[in-house]
């Protein structure tokens, strides 16, 4: 419990939605940061989720395929999430990157939204894709 308390006190402050500005990713789409979820454990233990808005993945009118979005999520893990992981306290077992064509409340059903999720483990400052 003490280790968790230290981690909570030492973790980076959350950014406000849009604080990262527009993030160009390999597919050419522009995504914006939505939020970071740190309080919901994942199946592998401590999980940190970075959520982004990516309108170009929309089912209707979208221009980015699921395969291209997967590359974008790997890029976001490596180039955005890694530098924002806590450097003290418990080490996250997993990083989840999610893209949604619109803001969606975490954990709430949103059948009208297009959403993609990818999980990564982190080792030696590198994100490694893990199949869900």
UniProtKB/TrEMBL annotation:
Cross-referenced Pfam families: DUF6497
Origin superkingdom: Bacteria
InterPro entries the UniProt entry points to: DUF6497 (IPR045467)
Name used for this protein in its record: DUF6497 family protein
């Amino acid at each position: 419990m003490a280790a968790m308390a230290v981690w909570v006190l030492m973790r980076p402050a959350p950014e406000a939605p849009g604080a990262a500005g527009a993030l160009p990713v390999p597919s050419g789409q522009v995504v914006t940061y939505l939020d970071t979820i740190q309080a919901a454990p994942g199946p592998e233990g401590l999980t940190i989720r970075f959520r982004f808005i990516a309108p170009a993945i929309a089912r209707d009118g979208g221009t980015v395929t699921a395969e291209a979005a997967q590359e974008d999520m790997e890029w976001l893990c490596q180039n955005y999430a890694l530098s924002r992981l806590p450097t003290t306290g418990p080490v996250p077992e997993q990083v989840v990157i999610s893209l949604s064509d619109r803001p969606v409340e975490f954990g709430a059903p949103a059948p009208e939204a297009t959403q993609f999720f990818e999980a990564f483990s982190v080792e030696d400052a590198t994100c490694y894709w893990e199949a869900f």
